[in-house]
Amino acid sequence: MTKRMMLVIVVCFGLFSGATVWRADEQAKPDTIFHVNVNMVQLDVAVTDKRGNYITRLSPWDFEIYEDGIPQRVATFGEENEAPRRLEDYPHEGTAVVADPPSRTGKQARENSLQPIMRKETADQVASMVVGASVFILFDTSNYMYRGFVYAQDAIEEFVRSLDHPYRVAFYSYSRNVSRICMLTPDRSVALTGVRETVAGDDAALYDALLMTLKDASRFSGRRVIVVFSNGPDNASMVAPEDVREVAQTEGIPIYMISTQLSRLDPQSTAVFSRMSASTGGKSYFAKDWRDQEKAFASIRDDLAHLYTLTYYPQPNPNYGWRSISVRLKGPAYKDYRVRARSGYRPHANRHFVQTASTP
Questions:
Q1: What DSSP letter does each residue of 216-242 carry, written as one string?
Q2: What pLDDT is recorded for position 145?
Q3: How far apart are CA 297 and CA 129, in angstroms?
Q4: Is the pLDDT of residue 108 over 70?
Q5: Which whole-number Å values give the CA distances from 216 to 65, 91, 308, 309, in the listed order?
């Protein structure tokens, strides 16, 4: 399959969760009506100090969001596993709780900030961003896995057991093809049974499998993440990793990569894994043995439990191509904190118009 054909597949997904914009040609006739539909953009944001400790209990007024340098206004906000709330329902008091608390209060941090934009969503619309997260686990069962197969299964099982109640889990495996062993479910036993049923297989087509997993994850609302366990480089995919990365960024789905020491012998794969996870808001880990694998899964679980969920409606932006996203904390008291989120998205633009009645 050619790269051009694969790009057609990506476009045909039609599932981008960034801003969706309908527009017509600038040369359109005067009797054309333009309809513009802008969807809410969701960001999963991690905030840590220099030591890697998570910063908790920040308020929505502590954040600044820029899209192509244009300030954005927060629409909903949630911390950890709580359901995101509209800003009008969110308390205005409270400070960040950290290992070394900042000297400035939350109220002071909000001074001179943009007032959040308020859209009148119904309670059902807000509740559609369900608590917890949908976690898609993608397990390498290629012929690279012959040696450490059982240890990897043990680490994945422990990760599934350790997830809190609000989480839903799907378990896929891949070699040359992807196998949907356990579809998304809150029932841990189904996922655990699926882990033990996997067997080692053929060549590794990681990026093809990631693209299919992204397609499945895009059908669900709320926070969604993909956790990949890879034991070696990709040697069978027909889609480019950069195309997969762009889909993940546009869909707002962080990718966490756990790779064994073998992959670090391949500098190209190591660079791709690191770039893909960082740009989507996830993290990458390189585990040389089963102990490191367990630590990596534990770190991912801890990360998922400390994410902020922010949403916004994009302000008017003439750019219908790639849009960069920057998330910052306000004020000098937070200048040493580190913010991790996806770096951008591509809005899905469609042409849509309706002709008005002709003037007699």
A1: HHTTS-SEEEEEEEESS---S-SS-HH
A2: 67
A3: 25
A4: no
A5: 28, 35, 23, 21
